[in-house]
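Handover notes (outgoing to incoming on-call)

Open items:
1. Iron-sulfur cluster carrier protein: sequence verified, structure written out, both below. Nothing else pending on this one.
2. Nothing else urgent.
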Amino acid sequence: MAELTEAQVLGALKQVADPARGADIVALGLVSGVAVKNGHVAFAIEIDPARAKEMEPVRKAAEKVVEALPGVLTVSAVLTAQRAPQPAPQAKPAERPLLPQVKSIIAVASGKGGVGKSTTSTNLALALAGMGLKVGLFDADIYGPSMPRMLGISGQPQSPDGETLLPMENHGIKCMSIGFLVREEDPIIWRGPMVMGALNQLLRDVEWGELDIMVIDMPPGTGDTQLSISQNLPLTGAVIVSTPQDIALLDARKGLNMFRKVDVPVLGLIENMSYYVCPKCGDEAHIFGHGGAKAEAARLSAEFLGEVPLDIAIRETSDAGTPIVASQPDSPHAKAYQAIAAKVWDKVRLIQSGRKGPKISFE
Ligand SMILES: Nc1ncnc2c1ncn2[C@@H]1O[C@H](COP(=O)(O)OP(=O)(O)O)[C@@H](O)[C@H]1O
Ligand SMILES: [Mg+2]
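Iron-sulfur cluster carrier protein structure tokens:
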């Protein structure tokens, strides 16, 4: 079968009209970021955020007409915010803070994927909850969401009013992830600007309630997507996770520099998979060298928050949806996360005593 083309997708989307404006969404220039790969299609429909609810049926209809094309396996359409189309000067709406009931937000980032960022975010969030704090965990890694699996949550979020979503909950923390909204087998091939639109929508639509702290599991890397998240979210601070090799390769330094560039305080560095604990004899083996993060943190004048060993129990518990801090809170590994959480919370409070909560908000 001939490979599906962008033109075919746009052709199909001409069947979908914007009900308020009478014309089709392609003619109105609302479709952007069409990506087609091996039968998987993704695109964005740019909308005025005020019309999000009204445009949801349009989004569904758009998915449906593309799904009907021969050779299409999956379709993901997202609504993204667009500035008001008319050039007439408008009174700027009063700036609404993005997450008014969230007292502090920390990003957990890494220079590259696979260093244990999601494992760290989850156990850190659980350790903060163990300190009696109200905690939310937001999975911003929309390319590879892990929270449904790591927190052992299945099913879809409820929307009692048809407008907002209730976060999912397990092990005493609230959580939202794009993974609850798309099927696991759907590859997500959104482009940078679409990512921000989708995250923005997800953050705004979730009824988090009051939170002392929100932990954000960032997408891996230090590219434009990560930069724009760091700029757009009202972050209190950032934590960098790295492995000893990652430190040697200076990937961690890139993460650090990214946050410094946008004036987000770096709370410190965590060394993950720091050493290996032999499951038979309990001996520690420093496979990748040891202490690199501590020395590197000092060189970069960032705090060293702690180290977590490479241990099968950490992987098995998070794969099973029962992260070690929740399932074995008295184990030495859980204690390592708890100590890191205590340091993080101290730093967050210190920063907040100097300023009054998150200030930045979305356009
Ligand atoms: N300290 C650790 N010990 C053992 N396995 C770990 C540890 N940290 C992470 N892992 C495992 O490594 C893999 C990648 O971790 P993950 O947290 O998904 O990384 P990232 O989010 O950075 O891509 C997962 O299978 C996870 O269970
Ligand atoms: Mg991850």
